[in-house]
Design goal:
single chain; alpha+beta; Jelly Rolls; Arc Repressor Mutant, subunit A; 2 domains; five-stranded antiparallel β-sheet; 11 helices; 51% helix; disordered N terminus
């Protein structure tokens, strides 16, 4: 069997050095499972910050902005699984779409100590089949993915949500700012407005926001607006002009130019051709 492409599934385990930082926040067009074998990490996901440790499993939906970095001087090790819509649909068909959605909505799972070996075993089997598979590997990988999500669904139902990921006061402030931007992206808000909202000088806030999130202020608000615009293009019949104003752009022509620069196609072509998503 040929090795599966990135667009379908990818599995990788690697160690990373002390204080490794992902260069920039990013998002991708596939789903991600991230399991931390060793070390501690800070995750910035959309507008939330999580401190996670050994035995934590993070689920990321596609097109979700995120950044991660190690937050201690210990060597880190992690396994990630990237998978596309076909795998997601197979999971949803087999286990129920609402159950799968609820797992991704939770985002972070702290796996109990007595179950970590089991989870790591599933991930190892996935990686083995991905790396050196034969004609049966595809079926086995699908089975392992279902087994993993059955565990997560059961865990999600039995353990109430508890955001026990304690943040520093500085991270709490930046998280508050990111949430404020996410809730007010369609308004004419400036860096000064948000800095005043969190009680910082604009210069210090700009530096701190970039440090924690991986985004400059303007870059972050533009990404939020573009993501909302894409959803409106695909899920509503609003005109391009209406969507431009709905997402905080004061000029529909400017919106069209920015959209094409970022997505590579015009808003109307994006709406008509879902393969560009």
């Amino acid at each position: 069997m040929e090795r599966k492409s990135y667009e379908e599934i990818e599995v990788n385990t690697s160690k990373q050095g002390k204080y490794y930082k992902m260069p920039n926040a990013h998002y991708h067009h596939v789903y991600e499972i991230y399991y931390l074998i060793a070390g501690t990490r800070k995750f910035f996901i959309e507008s939330d910050i999580y401190n996670v440790g050994k035995g934590s499993l993070v689920l990321l939906e596609k097109n979700v902005m995120h950044k991660t970095e190690y937050s201690s001087d210990r060597l880190g090790e992690r396994t990630y699984v990237l998978f596309n819509d076909r795998y997601y649909k197979a999971l949803a068909d087999a286990l129920g779409e609402e159950a799968i959605k609820s797992c991704f909505a939770r985002k972070v799972f702290s796996i109990p100590r007595n179950r970590r070996e089991y989870i790591e075993g599933i991930l190892k089997q996935l990686e083995n089949e991905y790396s050196s598979g034969d004609e049966y590997s595809q079926r086995l990988m699908e089975i392992y993915m279902k087994e993993l999500f059955i565990f997560l669904i059961r865990y999600n139902k039995s353990i109430g949500y508890n955001n026990a990921h304690i943040l520093s006061s500085g991270d709490e402030i930046i998280q508050s700012a990111a949430r404020y931007i996410s809730e007010n992206y369609n308004k004419d808000i400036s860096l000064i407005d948000v800095a005043e909202f969190v009680g910082m000088s604009s210069t210090y806030f700009s530096k701190k926001f970039k440090e924690v999130t991986g985004f400059g202020f303007k870059e972050y608000i533009l990404n939020i607006r573009m993501k909302k615009a894409c959803l409106l293009l695909l899920e509503t019949k609003l005109s391009v002009t209406e969507i431009a104003y709905e997402t905080g752009f004061n000029d529909s022509n400017y919106f069209g130019d920015v959209f094409k620069r970022i997505k590579g196609v015009s808003p109307l072509k994006y709406r008509k051709n879902r393969e560009y998503i």
